[in-house]
Amino acid sequence: KNDDPERMQFVIDAYARGVAEYAELGVDGMKVIDGFLVPVFLGYFGAVKATNHEQAARYWEEDLKAAGWASVTTTRIFDYWWSPAVLVLAEKEEKS
Fold first, then answer.
1. pTM of the complete model beyond 0.70
2. N or C: which end of the chain has fewer CB within 10 A?
3. Residue 23's CB: how many other CB atoms inside 10 A?
4. Is pLDDT at 3 greater than 90 in this prediction?
5. Which residues contact residue 12 at a Cβ distance below 8 angstroms, ignoring those fewer than 6 apart?
6. Any residues with CB less than 8 A from the CB of 73 and at least 6 apart, and which?
7. Are 39 and 49 in contact (CB under 8 A)?
């Protein structure tokens, strides 16, 4: 829930790390901050209409299974400042 103080602090701290990382890239990093990070941050707290849809990988797995995919696997790829990047693979039939 977005009004949970602990979750709000996590978001603020994570975005501070993200902004610091992109700021090191100079002009190109500022484009990411201004064009992506700020709008997503403001959308997270309802200040502007959200421009993205985020949910934990386990919920993507549940949604894909509910949509009829027989086999869904998640592989962690890389740890980023916000959360780990994952690959979610959905297949029509179970592997034997």
1. no
2. C
3. 12
4. no
5. none
6. 88, 89
7. no
